[in-house]
Sequence to fold (199 residues):
Amino acid sequence: MTTGLRERKKLRTRRELGTAALDLAVRHGLAEVTVEQIAEAAEVSPRTFFNYFSSKEEAVVAAGVERARDLADRLAARPADEPVMTSLRVVVRESLGETAPPKEWVAQVRLVRANPALLPHQLAAHAQIEHSLRVVLAERTGLAPDDLHPALTAAAVMAAIRVATDRWLGSDEHDDLGDVIDEALDLLTTGLRHPSRAP
Fold:
């Protein structure tokens, strides 16, 4: 029980640091934010900050890793006999929220697009998300985590979400992001068959 409590406290501190880093970067610009400011906002010391993150850039994209943890947990909780793509649709919708994507998530995506220095950290976060999904998908299918099926499914789903999100942001967010992601997942489900030409 003590270990569980300690881990929960560490997770809470990590989330508070990530939230503070993102909020400050959105309000003041990434270049203007310091580790000291992030630590102060989260009410910890700079030394404590470096127990969790190697840089402010890593902290800014941390929320994505936390969402990955939640996404994988939700996927693991779905009925074992439910088709994989159906389960993925449900958990992605749940993670986006019933009406609109979390403002924190949208802010992070926009910040990464505006700051190339964040891209390597975002890619690292995506790799963690992909790994988490791959492990759960392997468990659901009874395959090894390094088997081609769960590995390819996790990678394809992450790519579909990324492309759909870019498309949504480019449309001035007029469409429902969940619908755009559903459309991308539809293409995966049908095997990316050759599209029919418009008349």
User: Anything to note?
Assistant: Residues 88 and 130 are 13 Å apart (CA to CA). The longest helix spans residues 2-28.
